[in-house]
């Protein structure tokens, strides 16, 4: 894994690292000053520890430490790099960690800038509007990227094998899911598990089936203001693709929504940004988050690990109509049509704006 394979870098930009050996890069890694070279630290927010990303001086390189196999992250970034105009750091090399003998170092281009969370309060309304329009465009581009498989959800690494889903409401890794319907069944099973464990003989906790009507698309699945960078030329970058994978398009709203509702006020996204999230992701993503994911995620995690008897209600002779879901978690048709019209209007305005500005 020391060198990258499988892609013809049509947008490859030469770098000094191209001529460096793995040993030379390992020396740079060993010389990292963990206090001086740490990138992206925000002590008031990093209550679980600082991000393990460091500057590799004297070059414009960054080294990100990952504990597990990072082929899915590298593959996703290369896929985005090849099929979109979205600015993402170019991965130059992947090296094993020689010090701890576990994990890997991703050697990438260093982005000279700040995360959006840090600079947002300093921006004027027009610059903010430009950024959210760029983000909307980026997500639309992601959704047009050809997937390695149109039917296998979750992260992918080019091998064709399904990988465990990470991030968002999965919390702990879940899967891997060989099919879209298998991932939907996992959601339904978690709801049913909660229903069984909370049944007291009089009330069945109702739930709706997971909606599989939308096709799988490429989602970053960890988009929030700390993973959006604004460089010194005011260009918007997307970083940290570790959770990227094939999901329904409304999944892109999930991390945005979680950060908007973070328990700690210091960690919440500013309300002036939150009001744009629905516009950025588009579609009825906010409805799915508020009416399905929020309820799904608020269930105690302990219930997901309890062993239940799958035919618990059957053994009690209870009519399946009483406890099985009767609908699918999906917005009403009028709401979907109204949102579609709104999206068309937004995109028309953005096209006109681009022609005028251009």
Notable traits:
single chain; 358 residues; alpha+beta; Phosphorylase Kinase, domain 1; Aminoglycoside 3'-phosphotransferase, Chain: A, domain 2; 2 domains; four-stranded antiparallel β-sheet; three-stranded antiparallel β-sheet; 12 helices; disordered N terminus
Using only CA atoms, what is the Rg? 22 Å
What's the domain count?
2
**Helix and strand composition category:** alpha+beta
Shape: globular
Mean of the pLDDT scores? Answer: 88
Q: In which order are the strands of the major sheet placed?
A: 1-2-4-3
User: Which spans of ≥5 residues are poorly predicted at pLDDT below 50?
Assistant: 1-10
Total number of helices:
12
Distance between the ends: 42 Å
CATH topology of the largest domain: Aminoglycoside 3'-phosphotransferase, Chain: A, domain 2
Percent helix, as a range, is 25-40%
Beta-strand content: 5-15%
Topology as a string of helices (H) and strands (E): HEEHEEEHHHEEEEHHHHHHH
CATH C-level name of the largest domain: Alpha Beta
For the largest beta-sheet, the strand count, sense and barrel status come to: 4 strands, antiparallel
CATH architectural group of the largest domain:
Alpha-Beta Complex
Number of strands: 9
